Amino acid sequence: MQCEIIELSNSLDLMVTRNRKTMKGVANLVLALNKLSKFKFDRDLSNAQLCNTIMDCVMEEIVVEKGSSFCTEEKNFNYSRLVKHVELSDQYKKDLIQNSEEFRLQAITLKGGYCDLKVNFEMSCYRPATCYPNTGFTVHLSIRSNSKKLHLCCSKPDDKVLLFLKDCSDKCLSPDEQMQDSLFNKSMVCRDMATFESVKYPGWFISTAFEERDDSVEMCQADTAFRVTSFNFRFKD
Question: In angstroms, what CA-CA distances link 16 with 19, 20, 58, 102?
Fold first, then answer.
């Protein structure tokens, strides 16, 4: 066994352990280094932030499914076995909770002993052959509520895209069940902040309200006034 240490920056080294050399292994290493090189590391990064950045570059694909496409060309989805458990809050630290009476999310600032009300998301990664440039991963977001699995989905009954939670506890998510309704393009804004754009409705983003008293979590277009589309995310153990 051979080991090689590559210095990526003053505060980050990469250790490569070699057994049998394969072209697949070399290709995976080159892709990972290319993704890491897009981020600017510094000495102020905490271990959690560094882990978040590296983990966001990890993708292990195991199955390919064909799905219907809203574009002119066929869309393929490569599903990853990697499921990340994350907490989300908007860039002004509003936490996301589930409305106890409706299948929707709310954004409020939790204090004191109420922090356990925030929802924990399961984030699964996909790799679609999109018909337009995509600068991040495509992800599916879901939460657990009273033993039920709720998927975060979109619909467009009129000229506005709606965001809601859908009970899919007894179903397997597949392209035949309008998979694109519950897929979002996750694009990095900075090290641990990202936007989530609907795959089926390009140009529409998950958002919260700028005003503290407005707890709505809705879809909005990028240029909508007084809406916040950037979210902090933290991976959980």
Answer: 10, 12, 15, 49
Domain enclosing residue 88, as ranges? 61-235
Domain with residue 196: its CATH number is 2.80.10.50
Choice between 118 and 40, residue whose per-residue pLDDT is larger: 118
pLDDT tens-digit readout, 35-70: 666 655 555 666 666 666 666 655 544 443 444 333
Q: Are 86 and 148 found together in one domain?
A: yes
Tokens of 112: 């004191």
- The phi-psi region of residue 43 (left if phi > 0; otherwise alpha if psi is between -120 and 50; otherwise beta) is alpha
The neighbour count for residue 91, using CB atoms within 10 Å, is: 14
For the whole model, what pTM was predicted?
A: 0.64
